[in-house]
Amino acid sequence: MRLAIFADVHGKLLLPFKLVDCYQQQTGQTIDFILQCGDMGAYPDIHRLDKATIKHARENRDELGFHDNFIHENKDIRRLLERLNIDMICVRGNHEDHDFLDRLEQANPALPRFPIDVYKRIFVCRSGVRQELRKGQEVVYLAGIGRIGDAKGRTDPRFIQEYEQREVKKLLRSSGHIDVLITHDKDDSSQRGYGMKAIRDVLDNVPVRYHFYGHTGEPFRQETDVNGITQSMKVSELEFGPGGILPEGCMLVLDHRPDGDSTLEVVPRRLTNQLTRYNWKD
């Protein structure tokens, strides 16, 4: 099973699908799922944008991509998504319409992940809930933890909520392993004063093979977690930089094989550079 991993798309939810399309055509390798580490920019109503998104949207309409492309059907987009036949599975970031996501989560109480778009191709994980990704007889065990942590105890919707903390505690008591953990924030083991304790608790108490996160603004980095087991990856934000090209480490591909062996590819820039700020919507 191959998983493509992205972070911090800030409205450009169509771009990961287009990058995956390019990857499949040029490598001949099939992607089975897309994973996304939060800051989707899930704002169906442009009157409910947060201050940061309003600021960026004034300069770049891409910030409003969820509203523009995924709330009302576009026939060209539907054809692309049906041809690819791949679901994107996300966690919440801190730049989302959480009231909108709350309503959808509450309307689907039995589901470990719930659809948020008109095409039923973008799903959001319930924080702390272990779930399965299946392709034939292959299974990948996935968990996600959305939003960000806060040492000051603030409870507004950007920060992990009490009901999500309870789900994480259930996960800590479970006996199963996790193949892939996706989070928006990083853990709180850094001395820089931010991060999420719940993520550290999972990494310290549950066997996790891979952890992918975004949010921090740092460049791509791959390292072994302090637990000595987990391979931890900071995924670069999917933001166009100088020259209108994407940064190194903005697209990763995890090839998880049935025997339990796995390989991780940092997709080379010679491929990601083919979609630039100036042509990716063509």
Automatic annotation (TrEMBL):
The Calcineurin-like phosphoesterase domain sits at 1-217
A Pfam family of this chain: Metallophos
**Mind telling me which Gene3D superfamilies this protein's record contains?**
3.60.21.10
Q: What name goes with this protein? A: Metallophosphoesterase
* CDD domains reported in the protein's UniProt record: MPP_superfamily
Alphabetically, the GO molecular function entries are: hydrolase activity
| Superkingdom, taxonomy of origin | Bacteria
Question: InterPro entries per the record?
Answer: Calcineurin-like_PHP, Metallo-depent_PP-like
